[in-house]
């Protein structure tokens, strides 16, 4: 097979709230993640002294990042996608002065990455925001959050711009439709009017961050980040085709606004028919015209859509409720495995936006077993990643411009959906269980050496021929 481009960004992706721990160290304030001890689909639980939240320690990346970065460098990582915890920089969210201890932590982290030749890819808001902004303002439904986010973004641009060339605004921004508290700091039973108004404020904040990044850091690139929730028609019936179009537009709309700079006509029709009247100023419309440099996205699975109510037997998988595809196998957690879907999605996004694409999450959550000799034989993970990367190679040959690939969870971390350690993604095993027990010792899995070889060979070591677990 053809090698991947020489400048391809190979690496992995993590998130502050799922790896750092140290949830009250260094002046950090409480975040929305800190009151979701059972994950983004669990209840909102006010903090009490002695309460258990596995994310309070997570994998202790806050203290152990030198060891973890050394292991990633051993694999040959050229980049690492991570996030800045907003509440480390502005503990309550609405302060006028940043928390120096929080800034200093990321100074040290990015300097350590530079020492290994690992390029930071930084998400400004990844499934968390300062809890104070929810308690005082009701989350993103309040327009003032645009200003607060702008202050935070400009602070980190100024502080870290000499180290960070790649920025993302909001992680999986379209997930607010499925988990509003995680996305926009609002209750799950909030009205569609309120949620879309909050989403509008977030889109404006994202566009202003793009504007400011371009002004402050002319050599940097800033993109958006979508949850790639692609669905296929369950049948070729015209009703299923139109339902598929409708469902895909629900999430593509976020990319359309951020890449094209305005609301698409189909969303204007949706708002009219749902009697949603957004408050949009002329300044908002001008701000939205500051469009992203590249499109980044996650891809784990595909699904199906049908207009037939009798066939809409839905399963909770990933963040989306989807109709399962009868032609695809599933992981232990019910996530369907569709490597070709990644090639399809890459082509769809490139045709739609004509901007560089960055695959910033892709991986397989599975229960790993440590053998008596300390080895972890995770061939199922190797098969999954191998088959997906082969499809990326196909997309490159299709003419799609792909910047890079960062596998999700190169080191085991706390899962977002249910706050589990047992759902492991990493090339690096972390000795900790769902009850918080374990030594936190790091171990190299079989996939560690496999990914090292893939990077070193620029993809030439990938095994042709799709294999199914």
UniProtKB/TrEMBL annotation:
Family: Belongs to the glycosyl hydrolase 1 family.
GO cellular component: cytosol
Active site: 361 (nucleophile)
Enzyme class: hydrolase
SUPFAM superfamilies to which the protein is assigned, alphabetical: (Trans)glycosidases
Protein's UniProt name: 6-phospho-beta-glucosidase
Keywords annotated in UniProt: Glycosidase, Hydrolase
InterPro entries (UniProt xref): GH, GH_1_N_CS, Glyco_hydro_1, Glyco_hydro_1_AS
Record-linked NCBIfam families: PRK09852.1
Catalytic activity, EC: 3.2.1.86
Organism: Aquitalea magnusonii
């Amino acid at each position: 097979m053809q090698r991947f481009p020489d400048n391809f960004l190979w690496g992995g992706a993590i998130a502050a709230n799922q790896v750092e721990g140290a949830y009250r160290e260094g002046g950090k304030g409480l975040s929305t993640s800190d009151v979701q001890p059972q994950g983004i689909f669990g209840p909102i639980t006010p903090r009490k002294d002695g309460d258990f939240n596995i994310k309070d320690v997570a994998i202790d990346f806050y203290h152990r990042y030198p060891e973890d970065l050394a292991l990633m460098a051993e694999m040959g990582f050229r980049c690492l996608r991570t996030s800045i915890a907003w509440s480390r920089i502005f503990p309550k969210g609405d302060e006028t002065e940043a928390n120096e201890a929080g800034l200093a932590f990321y100074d040290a982290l990015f300097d350590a990455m530079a020492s290994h030749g690992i390029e930071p890819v930084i998400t400004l808001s990844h499934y968390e925001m300062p809890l104070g902004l929810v308690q005082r303002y009701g989350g993103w439904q309040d327009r003032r959050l645009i200003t607060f986010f702008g202050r935070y973004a400009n602070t980190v641009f100024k502080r870290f711009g000499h180290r960070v060339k790649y920025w993302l605004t909001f992680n999986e921004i379209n997930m607010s439709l499925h988990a509003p508290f995680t996305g926009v700091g609002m209750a799950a039973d909030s009205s569609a009017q309120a949620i879309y108004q909050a989403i509008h404020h977030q889109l404006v904040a994202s566009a202003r961050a793009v504007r400011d990044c371009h002004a402050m850091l002319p050599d940097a690139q800033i993109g958006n980040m979508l949850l790639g929730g692609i669905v296929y028609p369950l049948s070729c019936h015209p009703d299923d085709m139109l339902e598929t179009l409708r469902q895909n537009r629900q999430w593509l709309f976020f990319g359309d606004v951020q890449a094209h700079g305005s609301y698409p006509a189909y969303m204007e029709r949706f708002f009219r028919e749902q009697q949603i009247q957004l408050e949009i100023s002329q300044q908002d419309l001008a701000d939205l015209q500051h469009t992203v440099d590249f499109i980044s996205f996650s891809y784990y699975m595909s699904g199906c859509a049908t207009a037939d109510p009798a066939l809409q037997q839905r399963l909770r998988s990933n963040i989306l409720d989807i109709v399962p595809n009868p032609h695809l196998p599933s992981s232990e957690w019910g996530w369907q495995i569709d490597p070709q879907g990644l090639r399809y999605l890459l082509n769809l996004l490139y045709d739609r936006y004509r901007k560089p694409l960055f695959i910033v999450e892709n991986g397989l959550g599975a229960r790993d077993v440590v053998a008596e000799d300390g080895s972890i034989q995770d061939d199922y993970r190797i098969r999954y990643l191998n088959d997906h990367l082969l499809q990326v190679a196909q997309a490159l040959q299709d003419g799609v411009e792909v910047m890079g690939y960062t596998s999700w969870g190169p080191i085991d971390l706390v899962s977002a959906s249910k706050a589990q350690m047992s759902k492991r993604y990493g090339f690096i095993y972390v000795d900790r269980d769902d009850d918080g027990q374990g030594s936190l010792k790091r171990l190299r899995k079989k996939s560690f050496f496999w990914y090292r070889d893939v990077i070193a060979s620029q993809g030439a070591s990938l095994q042709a021929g799709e294999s199914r677990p």
